[in-house]
């Protein structure tokens, strides 16, 4: 994948509200993030268990680049959770480049449980890694 990540911040922040208004499309999180969404791409890797799987949303917002996930259990969608904030080494072309290799990037943590902040999650860990270089 051509997209290089300079920094990856691991999050666990529930999206509480999605709002569309005259200023655009926004996601409001439990942790206080307000994402002003510029563009997004829904990504659905192969589903191995139709009763319990995860769907992904790749987001470019004015505040940066974010990965969200939503778990679907017995056909019931759970809430969206912001799980990563990515800082690219170069902004130009990052959204498209990363989207093109998203499925292979997410394989490493696609089956991990994401605790909601109500269950003791909500922390953030910052690391300088480049999983896009797999």
What does the secondary structure layout of this molecule look like, with pairings?
Elements: E1 5-21, E2 24-29, E3 34-43, E4 52-61, E5 64-73, E6 76-88, H1 94-100, H2 102-106, E7 125-127
Antiparallel strand pairs: 1-2, 1-6, 1-7, 2-3, 3-4, 4-5, 5-6
Short structural description:
This protein is mainly beta and 134 residues long.
Give the helix/strand class.
Answer: mainly beta
Element order: H for helix, E for strand = EEEEEEHHE
Biggest sheet details: 6 strands, antiparallel, barrel
**Tally of contiguous helical segments:** 2
Could you characterize the architecture of this molecule?
The chain is mainly beta and 134 residues long. It contains 2 helices and 7 strands; from the N terminus they run ββββββααβ. Strands 1-2-3-4-5-6 form a 6-stranded antiparallel barrel. The radius of gyration is 14 Å and the shape is globular.
């Amino acid at each position: 994948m051509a997209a290089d990540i300079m920094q990856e911040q691991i999050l666990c922040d529930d999206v509480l509200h999605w709002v569309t208004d005259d200023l655009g499309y926004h996601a409001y999180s439990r942790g206080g993030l307000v994402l002003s969404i510029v563009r997004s791409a829904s990504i659905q890797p192969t589903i191995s268990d139709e009763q319990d799987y995860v769907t992904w949303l790749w987001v470019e917002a004015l505040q940066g680049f974010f990965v969200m996930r939503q778990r679907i259990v017995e056909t019931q969608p759970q809430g969206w959770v912001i799980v990563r904030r990515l800082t690219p080494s170069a902004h130009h072309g990052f959204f498209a480049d990363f989207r093109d290799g998203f499925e292979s990037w997410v394989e490493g943590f696609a089956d991990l449980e994401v605790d909601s902040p109500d269950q003791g999650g909500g922390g953030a860990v910052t690391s300088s890694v480049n999983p896009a270089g797999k």
